[in-house]
């Protein structure tokens, strides 16, 4: 890293590179990252290690894809690497182009290099237009395109549209993604302690491991949220890895930990299971106000607390 | 009240009299009432009015009967008279004798005077031994016996065994109650603010009115208790009285309001319905230690609170 | 019973008499009872015994009062007397007059005879207009008035307005009931097997005893109804009588046992507790159509059954 | 397919090949597949297409991995390809060796070819012993090893131990999997209608899409199982793919659809959501008897049905 000398660690942002990836597009949405040093890494583990070990202020990582679901590598890393906190969320529309070395015609394409997730998202188009193609997997969308110039094993690559700014490729077809609404959700992760202030349009992420021997414990855990009117926008089970059938749950909640209903629900969950990881409360990418029933308003929680505190302290109620 | 001069109000205890009732037997179990002035009243309303208006320190009233269920007059009074607090609970075994004016033989009995609850509890015996009898209702068990000397309309009366200490009656039969385990539960009610200290063998009484328009609201209310491991020993519905089908619930909980699990459950209930009346936390009559699962221990609640407070304040977790 | 000769047993209807009671007013609402023999009895037990032992086709009994709640004697009798079925429901508005022997003035009244429930419902008026009065309990509203002529112990009686048709009394005050909307709900009980046909405006009554040793069993029982969208219009706990704190539940459900959602809920409840008494499905007194969410429609249940039957039988699905 | 002539379609089994994969090891556990034609395919989609289009009797596909969780490609294929049924389950312990072309020494290895899941499961060993290595992804574990002889880009490959039977490779290290208990769960999928008979040690798989607009619908769905004592051994959310945050659930239940409690739970789920796919009931790989509380026994369900059928038909109960 030749430029390490010019940048203090707290001005560095790690992301899954190289330049041109969707992750880089997400990082471009972060105002405070503009003009700082961006460090391209090869995988989520490397990005989080940069943060944990102080090489970077923050890392941008993919966490959910509208077609492929939760990004399991990210979820597993967040469940096991301690001391991390999500501080922001970003959405990047997912679209793909089919690119090739200049001069290649679509009819010539026999082997397509593509990251497995990208391949899954454009398989419909590929099966229709290149029924005989073979698939060669790549480690990133940009690497798929870059490989065209490395070993010549593939004839074309599935890549993000921005690839043309970085590589001398020719676009054989545009908009080859099967789902026009496809998007990937990214999070910015740092070692920050404390929690960003409430905006009214927040999300809270936690990872919860259920107590071992309890039948019905999943239900009991989910009730902690429903009984306080807290909506879940993501519920994903991930194997703990020690035995078949043992799972932890990655959960996104609508609201901020300082919303009374969220705070109280997290207390309930924590009592229920000591294995709760708080990943952070942060503004939603879509800035959409959280909706909830007025019976779960902050003041309802505060009134109840005042009422019962008065009873126990012996003060007169309601006067 | 000729003796009012000798007694300060805080030395007076009201009870459903006259001397000889089960209520008096309950009051005899209260150490601090011994040697004080006992005021015999005619009904629950009068007893509670004595307390509210400051004529008495406390009133002993029947609240549940193992055969007849909740004493509805008491439950309704506690739901509507403000400013009262249950401070103690007492159990009196219920047994009955059949008494008559001296010289009466069992074979002569045609009309039996009995309080309706006492009648219900000895009907089996009466139907077997006096198949042709008629029933004349009385306002109390002692009044039933006293009536034998008032108008001569009844030939015998159902009364508590202690009646022979107060009236010149002859016992025609003993142990005529149908259920040998029958008991009545009494509570001592005062204007006390604050709550007696925890003993580990406590009970908490509340009256809860459900929010109007919510289907499933009873279930949601009961879940506030079950999800914190709080057991109910009494659940009784009572009409609110304004329309057919509108009910409030009289509930006894195992535990003290200062037990974390009870405290938190009451917060949950209060958020859910603003119409919650806290009737008191007090030692159980049977002094039986409250049993609950260790996952609802106080320290579990405290640990969860510390954990989340640390997160929101930005302190490092778990160090 | 001089007219017994002219009436076959299946043309006899028992009711809490004498003539002039609210129960008689309820029986007047039953078309098929008109012109038949009506048998006046002294209490609920006698009325039900008439039915069980074949002396009467059916008995009219009070089951719920908008002010005083469930009629516990009725509920307990239905829980313990086997072989009975509710076949109809009737509502009688409850209003009271204060009556006296001709020539009595309100100012003269010192002792008021009243059935305890009637007394409870007019206590507000009595305490305001006759602050010094004493209460003498009666076994029925009509007997209260009749007693004026029997022993002269009471000066006035609380009675139903219709009393003037039966007794030579003078009305001292009208409309003395504290709640202008007060009503009593009556049910007609017979030995009928089978169930009256669905009308769309039906009610189903059951009595459920929870399994002994199960914490959370009340919640689990109530969920059987809520999870199928079956609303409860009555939930009343009654002591089983064998020990303090052991209760059974008297429940009225909106809907008919042949409504799929009610049928399935009752299956769920029965699996859960073998101590379920089915008291009957019958048209509601108010003829109000039962409202429920369309996702609990009969066809939803039928479709699910067809779907799963097809799977298990190996038939092709959905073709 | 030169041997198509000798094999009727119903004697062909598709599996993710080539020979030597864990999938082949699973297929070796199927008695009825022995001696039949085994068709090696390149991915799950191809395997299922073989079945749907009649080229194969059945296909063996991986469905869950103790380290990596549900195999999402399989889950998504089962959710979208109609007409399939799981008929058996098989467990294969997962272990890995590091192999290379003969003559290669561990110290020479710079690039490791490995299927992403295999790579994830041996990363601990690789990072310790080959800290500088690069990863080249492969489409299967066997292809990873085969690639050593194809283009020479990788120096070593992560492969199943059985690879030495198929390729002329040298084992550089054995037991390099990070988790000694790692296993993969496979299912055999066919077009069979009907359901294999109950064995008492069965599993049932379903895919459930929740109704759109219902908050709390996940909870309500899970209650269908818990209220009948049906345990879930797998709950995995998968994006439906049409919009961010829309999920379906892949669920494995303990028990057979012909177990009354499972049957009734599936009825409940189907009523709740018309989008339920029944994937099959089949013997568990581990042959472990399903445990459940006796209150969910078949006879409990049957008794309840008989009871209620008797009531509606008008037959006498319980006599």
TrEMBL record, chains A, B, C, D:
- E.C. numbers: 4.2.1.51
The keyword Lyase belongs to this UniProt entry's keyword annotation: yes
ACT domain ranges (all copies): 206-284
Under which pathway is this protein filed? Amino-acid biosynthesis; L-phenylalanine biosynthesis; phenylpyruvate from prephenate: step 1/1
Q: Which reaction does it catalyse?
A: prephenate + H(+) = 3-phenylpyruvate + CO2 + H2O
Concerning NCBIfam families, the annotation shows:
PRK11898.1
| Name of the protein in question | Prephenate dehydratase
